[in-house]
Amino acid sequence: MNIRKRIAALALTGAVVGSGLIAATAATAVTVGAATQGEVVAQSCYGNAWSYSKPAGTYFSPSSTTYFTTANCADINIKTNTDRKVKVCFYASGGGLNHCQSDYKSTKAGEWKVIASDVKDGTKFKFQFESSAASTGMRAH
After folding, report:
1. Are 115 and 86 in contact (CB under 8 A)?
2. 49-140: in CATH 2.60.40
3. CA-CA distance, 113 to 34, in Å (whole number)?
4. Residues 66, 127 contacting (CB under 8 angstroms)
5. Where are the domains of the chain?
6. What is the full per-residue pLDDT of the chain (141 aa) written as tens digits?
7. Which residues, other chains included, contact 109 with Cβ-Cβ below 8 Å and sequence gap of 6+?
């Protein structure tokens, strides 16, 4: 008779633990499901961000090569560590300058800013800063 009680207690414990895991999983699913499509895309995009460092005396980042857009983001985004004015210059696949945006966009320190929207994957570009002061931060594209 003791063995039957132990088996019943073990089965009941397993059922209670199992239902707790199911409830926790369901709660997590609800929390994840609460994020909007835009938030999920932004998290994915910014989660794959890279740092940048523009030295003083230059206006472009990077100074000698180009960045290129990826499937991580549909836009070109920057998060500067200080307030800056930035635009994007696009380059042909052969490396020559194609064109630059006409207007600078103002960034706020520590905040993501979309500089160019709906850019095709594989597009080569550089950030052009209005100031030649040194600048650091993050980029996502």
Report:
1. yes
2. no
3. 24
4. no
5. 1-34, 49-140
6. 445 555 445 454 554 444 454 444 444 444 445 555 555 555 679 999 999 999 999 999 999 899 999 999 999 999 999 999 999 999 998 889 999 999 999 999 999 999 999 999 999 999 999 999 999 999 999
7. 80, 81, 82, 83
Structure tokens that stand for 28 in this block: 């997590």
Which residues, at least 6 apart from 61, have a Cβ–Cβ distance to it below 8 Å?
Answer: 52, 53, 54, 126, 127, 129, 135
Q: DSSP class of residue 57?
A: T
77 contacts 45 by C-beta, under 8 angstroms: yes
User: Bridge partners of 99?
Assistant: 90
Q: Which two tokens stand for residue 87?
A: 């635009």
What CA–CA distance (Å, rounded) separates 136 from 82?
8
Asked if 64 and 88 count as a contact pair (C-beta separation under 8 A), the reply is no
Yes or no: say if 51 and 136 are a contact pair by the CB < 8 Å rule: yes
Give the pTM. 0.70
Both structure tokens of 104? 């600078």
Amino acid at 123: T
